[in-house]
Design brief:
143 residues; alpha+beta; HIT family, subunit A; globular; catalytic activity; HIT-like; Histidine_triad_HIT
Length: 143
């Protein structure tokens, strides 16, 4: 059975994508820790991050870094957070988000009803920063 992330990747469920390549995608979380919270997800369904082949794990980290730099440029937070925890969906993924404090690392703080227009603006800002940095993968994500 496909995970919710696979359904998003395949277009069965909507997603606000900021990155698409042949190995990974990145899209906004529907329950963000903060405005601009992105999930970096391998296309291949692998449940636990420790089971990722090393080249794929390295690629996911490189995508996370590019997305993190775009988040930094778009939102100018004190830091850009990165977390791998994987309890909510059995499909490896990295959380990347703008953060101003350690309190914003708690999943008890997620916004369960984020403003759709704000989400669209956040995705556009991140895609724009990625494109400005020369990442053409953001072009495919905006299509």
């Amino acid at each position: 059975m496909s995970t919710v992330f696979t359904k998003i990747i395949e277009g069965e469920l909507p997603g606000r994508f900021v990155w698409k390549d042949d190995q990974a995608v990145a899209f906004l979380s529907i329950q963000p820790l903060t405005h601009g919270h992105v999930l970096v997800v391998p296309r291949e369904e692998i449940d636990h991050w420790v089971d990722l082949p090393a080249p794929l794990a390295a690629h996911l980290m490189a995508v996370s870094q590019a997305v993190g730099q775009a988040i930094d440029a778009a939102f100018e937070p004190r830091r850009v957070g990165l977390m791998i925890q994987g309890f909510e969906v059995p499909h490896a993924h990295l959380h990347v988000w703008p953060t101003d404090s350690i309190a914003e690392f708690s999943f008890d703080q997620v916004d369960r009803d984020p403003d759709p227009e704000g989400m669209d603006r956040a995705a556009e800002a991140i895609r724009g920063a990625l494109l400005e940095a020369g990442h053409r993968e953001a072009e495919a994500a905006g299509a």
